[in-house]
Amino acid sequence: MKACWRVLVVHNAYQQRGGEDSVVEAEVALLEGRGHEVLLYRRDNSDIAHVAKLDLLARTFWSRRSTRDLARAVREFSPDVMHVHNTFPLISPSIYWAASRLRLPVVQTLHNFRLLCPQAMFLRDGHVCEDCLGHLPWRGVVRRCYRDSLTQSGTLASMLSMHRAFGTWQHKVTRYIALNEFCRSKFIAGGLPESRIAVKPNFVDVPSPGEEARRDGLFVGRLSPEKGIAVLLGAVGRLPDVVVDVVGTGPEEKAVAANPRLLVHGARSPADVLAAMRQAAYLVMPSIWYENFPRTLVEAFACGLPVIASRLGAMAELIEDGRTGLMFAPGDADDLAQKIAWAERHPDAMRAMGENARCEYAAKYTPEINYRQLMAIYDQAIGEVAHG
Questions:
Q1: d(CA 64, CA 137)
Q2: pTM of the full predicted structure?
Q3: Which regions of 223-265 does DSSP assign to beta strands (E)?
Q4: Whole-angstrom Cα Rg for the chain
Q5: Distance of alpha carbon 235 from alpha carbon 284, whole angstroms
């Protein structure tokens, strides 16, 4: 094993900052903090406004700029491995082909289900939808699944179909990183090569919480339909004596602010979020989509905060019901209300679950553990290309 790899990190940042952007920054800091040289190749979707529509369409399929930029990065930086997070839409899958020509190992983190579903979340009309799983995504075009646009859905679905036909996903990525076993199983079902998909979760670096008094519930996240805002509203409407602090912004903010049981604090700094987690009695995650690996969940565990979440997708894998949190039926506001009411009546049991959650964090989600996992994946990818 080489002492310090030189890593080219590739990421197409979103217009609205989210957990994926935070993960990229955390992994870059993790690598640099342990002596690795890192070059971040970053494009930003805020630049889309300055790109002509036809040009953007072409770039989504194949970006000549990205291939030129990669060639220059390899020439000037000489990376040992390229770690890709997101390529849509400005970087494009052309980056994989350029890396292959240069015999540069490629590691791709699968932050969402974009390769299998144009909408990226397996969600339609408020319910889980896997109609495109393992199939060409034409249904996503007919149903306008991406931004309710026939044109944009068609462009994205065509790009996915073209690169499936070209073998991009099958042959041009050396190792994939799925964030948990549930997501890994979905990507295998969707046609990605099983032998190339490793599991490495997200991580956070959070010191042990103190003995602060804990009270009330907490929601942290984007205030949008897929996060189960309607479910949360329905649940607290059944609980006249319960208060839930809400940290986040989004399209559902007015509806949330109108409910007296929900105290909206808007966007907060990461430090403020962790402080709120150390004071809350439980975190509520009522998402109605699978959630690949919510960074908020591992932050809660690190803060000794138990989680009340939908029994759905990765959340059902990551939370042990009755040990690190409570699970409720997805989309069922009445069941969520019952679990919140139980948590309010049993503060000692919830504190014990929080202690278990902190132990789970220490065993699985620390920077040290994550670094070892990441190095093992890099070693496999680099060795495969070197001896291939």
A1: 25
A2: 0.94
A3: 244-247, 262-264
A4: 21
A5: 11
CA distance 18 to 248: 11
pLDDT tier, 109 (very low <50, low <70, confident <90, very high otherwise) = very high
Total residues belonging to the chain: 388
Coil vs helix vs strand at 197: strand
| Chain-centre distance for alpha carbon 272 | 21
Strand partners, 310: 328
Tokens of 325: 């949190």
Report the alpha-carbon distance of residue 5 to residue 353 in Å, rounded.
Answer: 39
| Paired residues of 10 in beta bridges | 41, 84
Burial class (CB in 10 A: 0-12, 13-18, 19+), 41: buried
> Would you state the structure tokens that stand for residue 191, as one six-digit string?
């046609």
Contact 87, 43 (CB under 8 A): no
Is residue 175 predicted with pLDDT exceeding 60?
Answer: yes
Which residue bears the tokens 């979760």? 201
> Rounded distance, CA 41 to CA 24, Å?
11
CA distance 133 to 21: 26
Both tokens of residue 22?
Answer: 């935070």
- CA distances, 1 to each of 29, 83, 178 (Å): 21, 18, 23
- Residue 286 preceded by cis peptide, ω within 30: no
pLDDT in tens, 211-225: 888 999 999 999 999
Q: How many CB atoms lie within 10 A of CB 106?
A: 22
Closest by Cα among 34, 89, 21, 1 to 9: 21
